[in-house]
Amino acid sequence: MMFIDPSDHPVLSRISMFVFVLVLFGFLQVSFDTALYAQGSKKKNETYLNRVEFYDEVRARLNKEFPKWRIVFRGQEHVIYRNSVAIVPFEKHKYAAKKESELSKTEQMELVIVYKPFSYQEAIEKGESMMLDRDLQLKEKYGMSEIMSDDGRGLFYASNRDQKNRLAKYLLAKKVLIKEEVIFPDLYVEDYEVDLDKKRPEFYKVYPQEVEGEVDAIYAMVKEVIKAGKKKTK
Asked: Residue 154's closest CA among 2, 31, 58?
């Protein structure tokens, strides 16, 4: 993350002048402190599948849609597999003129789901702390201590043009800061980030040929299960 000084950017500078006019005429009395927690509050009100629930849902979908595939828990990973698949790796594709099914032994095709520990709560708390620290830096940069009320309401009282200009720049910079979100995993089950790409199989061709299409469809199904499992709490 980085701070943006509105005076250093032509577009932000024009917006800053607009905000300045609002402050000048007393139309802007804003405390953005609660907005710092908006993203965190949203995440705190969501629940996610745990790994057991995820396993049960994927197994049910496999049985219904891909009956030749199974799912097992191996170590700290889930493995979706199909037996009796001939895999032709990329390093052998130059022999494609030959009968490709003879270039590889029949084996198990595996789609490995990797889990990385990740705590939403810790990420939210870390993000909130970081944003508050950066807000304090903004206040110091624009000298807000001399125009901020001391009654805890977060209001500002600018009495001259310099103070109003600094206040306008601070408020604008804070708006930019608030829009910078904590980065959360795209795929997540309770307490874990889900990585589908780390051990994704690579091959030139497979036999039966239907397996290639099934691999893509199963990965899409897994993503669907994860995203559909996110629920809002009351």
From this structure: 31
Q: What is the pLDDT of residues 187-220, one digit of tens each?
A: 999 999 999 999 999 888 888 999 999 999 999 9
**Predicted local confidence at residue 42, as pLDDT:** 56
pTM: 0.64
Domain limits, the chain: 6-30+121-179, 46-118+185-232
Segments of the chain scoring below 70 in pLDDT: 1-45, 91-104, 150-154, 179-181, 231-234
Across-strand partners of 109? 82
Using DSSP's 3-state secondary structure scheme, residue 89 falls into: coil
Peptide bond into 208 cis (omega under 30): yes
Among the residues of the chain, which ranges form H helices? 10-24, 38-44, 51-65, 120-141, 161-179, 210-228
Contact 124/182 with Cβ under 8 angstroms? yes
Instruction: Give residues with Cβ within 8 angstroms of 223, minimum separation 6.
Output: 187, 196
